[in-house]
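Encode chain A's predicted structure.
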Amino acid sequence: MKYCPNKKSAVSGFLVMVLIITAGFVVIFFVMPMILGGANIAAADSMCRGSVALRDKTYTDISPGIGPVDVDIIEFGTPLLCKTSEFTLPEDKNADEETIKKEIAELIVSCWFRYGEGLIENVFKTTGQEATNRCQVCYIVNLRETTEFKRVPTEEDQSEIESKMEVINAINENIIMHKIQQGRCSGEDCQIIEAEIAAFEEEKEKEGTNLRNIVNKLDGIFLSEFTDYLHNTPYKLISESDDCKIEGGFCIKGKSIEDCGKAGVFPDEDIVPSDMIIDEASSVCRKKGHTSCCYTDYGCLNRGGICISDPPEEIEEQYTRYNDDVWGCPTDEYCFVKNENHYTYGGYVQSFGGEGLTMVTTGIYPGETYAISFGSPSDTCGWCNLAKKIGAGIGAASVIAGGAILVATGVVASPFTLGASLGLTVVGTAVVAGGVAGATAGFVATALATNAIHHFQELFTTRNMNTVYFTTLKQLQQDGGLCSIIESV
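Encoded structure for chain A:
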């Protein structure tokens, strides 16, 4: 907030701000011992989120010499109380890959939540030279082996994979060049070029198979697999109910089961009165100006979903299947939720609150240490414009893959996705195989896991929207540290 008062309102306005900030420090005085005393991670997240909101309310930018007191303070506000939490995962020594993906995904959305879900543009309230970072580490995760999650890729594995990638990239370059020539040729020349393209495609398929065979020998969750999980696994569902019961339910003005069965009460029109229950004395509904609460024994129906065993095509297009005990259905039926009420882990960051971005630069391997970080928008972002232009040129269905990736037929990695308004998946360099379109090689060098990534620093110091990063700790610590690790507050 910019604070440049005139003389008549200066005193009152200044005192109001002082009182607000003083109240903020009183809150901090009481909660600080909880953080310093080793409160659990959930408490630390709540404390951070509260301090983010408080700083946003109390932050004031004062122009020197204009207020009632000639002060030299330029900007002030309550501090952030966001301490980096470090721990070891998974707790279960028998955890499998699905469990580990879920635990990491939960931390990514928790990091997004603790810093305000993208609803605050500049969380850190820094400008000028102090704004070069605007990035803090939420969590440091030491990932240990389990009985179901063991082998780490060796240097030999990495070298072999990178060698195969170089071969595939060279083949793709030849295919692209030949297709350019194909658009300009005529007669027999076209036939020759077409035959050469077919030969390159066959060679690429062969090398892609070889690469997949190498990858399949390794334990680990590869970047492409994890990004697929983030953007295809449900995280949050929006209920359409009136919440007149713990499990949902809808309010009506009538008092009978027949009233519950009238069109429009339940989104699922196939519900029959025998499946319904009515609470004729619902205090929640009375507050809403209604009388009774209609509900069933099934959470899916109570929250606005539909239960069906064999969905028709129109349902599959407009709804997403969701499996969860809370959103339950009768035996042999599945819960389907409207697409607009369904958020994956990645979708939650991209569009649930403010617009956001998830950037994943590595796969997940036992024995590695990872960092999950949050960054606010920077003043400039050169690569953002480049990525947007590339995405617009290639098309929303295409993936430009780069960073720490494995790309072959059926294995496509996308280190980050832009916000919902862009509607596309895109990153820096094109590493293309198996028919996946891409372009603009060289912006981010192909690498595996902890290998160096060219211009990696730029991806962490410039951004055009709030961003959550998932990286190895080694990646984060290059170039003197790309995000701040907050050991104490």
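The chain has three domains: 1-81, 155-234+346-480, 235-340.
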